[in-house]
Design a protein that fits this description.
The protein is an alpha+beta fold and about 270 residues long. The chain is about 45% helix and about 15% strand. The protein is built from nine helices and six strands. The relative contact order is 0.07.
C-alpha cells in the first residue's frame, strides 16, 4: 500500500527515501540503523502527536511525505469527502507533515491543508501498529463491525449504503433549509398582520375612492405649485405685491386637477 516514503531531518536521519513495490516488504538492520525512525515517520503520518525535539539538531524542521496506493478501496473516497479534503488522483493518497522546532507544524492531504484529527481518521484506514496493547482494539465496537464486514466481503454494498445514506441526509438538510428560508420572522409576520388590519379598516366605497384620488392629485401638484408661487413672489416682491399674490393663488393650490387660475385681486 505504501508506494513511496521520504524523510527529512527526523531525529538523527538527514534524508531517507524508500520506494516499495508490490508484495511483502521487510525492513531489517542492526541496532541504530534507523528502523525506529522509519516507524516514527509512519506514526507522524498516522496522526500521532510529536514533540519538537524530534527535529534533527541544526535543522529548523523535519518533514515526512508518503504516497499511498489506495485504488480499489472505496473507504478513502468516502472519508475524504466527509472531511472536506481533496480527492485522490490516479488512486494515490499524498500525505505530508512537517514539525517545526519553534513554530506550528503543517499537515496536508492531497495538497490541501488538513488537521491532526483528520490525519488520525485517515490513519485508521491505511496503517496498523502492532504492539503490546494491540488486542485492546478488539474491544472497540467499530473494529468488530469492520472485521465482520471485511470477513463477509461487504465492502462494495457497504460503500453503496453509505453513499445512499449520505444522499438522504443531504436531501433532508436541503428540505429543512428551504423550509426555514420560506418561513417569515416574527417581526415580518407582525408587520404584515398590521397592514392587513389597516386594509380591513379602510372605506373602499366609490365615494371614498374618488376622494382619495382627488387628495392624491392635489398632493402630487403641491411641489409644482409651491415652486410657481416662489417664482411669483421673487418677481413681484419688489413691486410691493409679494403679499397680495400668494392670497390670490390659494384657491389654485386647493384645486385637485385643474390648471390654477389666479382670481382677480383688488389693489390697495
Amino acid at each position: 500500500m505504501i508506494r513511496r516514503l521520504v524523510i527529512r531531518d527526523l531525529a538523527l536521519m538527514d534524508r531517507a527515501e524508500l520506494e516499495v513495490g508490490p508484495g511483502f516488504t521487510v525492513v531489517t538492520g542492526e541496532t541504530g540503523a534507523g528502523k525506529s525512525v522509519l516507524l516514527g515517520a509512519l506514526s507522524l503520518l498516522a496522526g500521532n502527536r510529536a514533540a519538537k525535539t524530534i527535529v534533527r539538531k541544526g535543522a529548523e524542521e523535519c518533514s515526512v511525505e508518503a504516497e499511498l496506493e489506495i485504488a480499489g478501496d472505496p473507504r478513502f473516497a468516502e472519508v475524504l469527502r466527509s472531511l472536506d479534503l481533496p480527492a485522490c488522483d490516479d488512486g494515490l493518497l499524498i500525505l505530508k507533515r512537517s514539525v517545526h522546532g519553534t513554530k506550528a507544524g503543517r499537515i496536508s492531504v492531497n495538497g490541501g491543508a488538513a488537521t491532526l484529527t483528520q490525519l488520525q481518521q485517515l490513519g485508521e484506514l491505511w496503517i496498523d501498529f502492532h504492539g503490546p496493547g494491540e488486542p485492546q482494539k478488539l474491544m472497540r465496537a467499530e473494529t468488530q463491525q469492520e472485521m465482520l464486514d471485511l470477513h463477509a466481503g461487504l465492502a462494495s454494498p457497504l460503500a453503496a449504503y453509505r453513499a445512499g445514506w449520505r444522499q438522504r441526509h443531504e436531501l433532508i438538510r436541503g428540505a429543512e433549509e428551504a423550509a426555514t428560508a420560506e418561513r417569515l420572522s416574527e417581526d415580518e409576520e407582525a408587520f404584515l398582520r398590521s397592514q392587513l388590519e389597516k386594509l380591513d379598516g379602510l372605506d373602499l366605497s366609490e365615494e371614498a375612492i374618488a376622494k382619495l384620488e382627488r387628495d392624491h392629485a392635489r398632493a402630487s401638484r403641491a411641489q409644482e405649485l409651491a415652486a410657481l408661487l416662489g417664482q411669483l413672489e421673487a418677481g413681484l416682491g419688489s413691486d410691493g405685491l409679494g403679499e397680495v399674490f400668494p392670497n390670490c393663488l390659494k384657491p389654485a393650490m386647493t384645486s385637485p386637477v385643474s390648471t390654477p387660475r389666479p382670481r382677480p385681486c383688488a389693489t390697495a
